[in-house]
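DM from R.C. (forwarded with permission)

"hey, sorry to bug you on a friday — could you get me a structure for this? deadline for the figure draft is monday and I only need the backbone to look sensible"
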Amino acid sequence: MRVFTWLMMLSLVSPPASAAVYRWTDEQGSPVYTDQVVPGAEELHLSGSVVQSPQPARAPATAPGQSAPEPIVADVYSRVDITQPTKGTVITSPDGAVRVELTLEPVLQAGHQIFLQLDGDTLPPQRSSNLTLSRVSAGRHLLSAVVRNAEGGLLRRAETVSFDMKLEAAPGPGVAASP
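My reply, with the result:
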């Protein structure tokens, strides 16, 4: 009788060896295994014990809510860099003026335009690699630049630089400017 009681207790504690496992493929093409019935899933017949260590989650290629980076349509430029302002620069200006200089190799080709983005806002297209932004507010800013062809295709992207703007009042009449 004791053996029967022990066998009954073990059967209540142990999961059944023949539990159903289902496999299906998600939108990214990765296999998913579950013990729940899913439409279109294939039932797997496993024998014996199956133990698998969980795998670390893969980081998504893009952050949630963001789209994938825009692809470059042609390799025309070997270099597009924001050389002014430099990363981490503190700019002091009474009117929020920021001198922007870009280095392009080769020089900007016919039909191509430079698009600057300041804090995510795209500015009107430029043909010059040297310009001045005006009325930039005080605080930290992010500046990026891309070169596009006449059809709007991305040709090259510059690394984004951050800079800080410090607005300083211009000296009044009879007040000497500090060195």
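R.C.: lifesaver. The first strand starts at residue 21 and ends at 25.
me: no worries. The chain has two domains: 2-44, 79-167.
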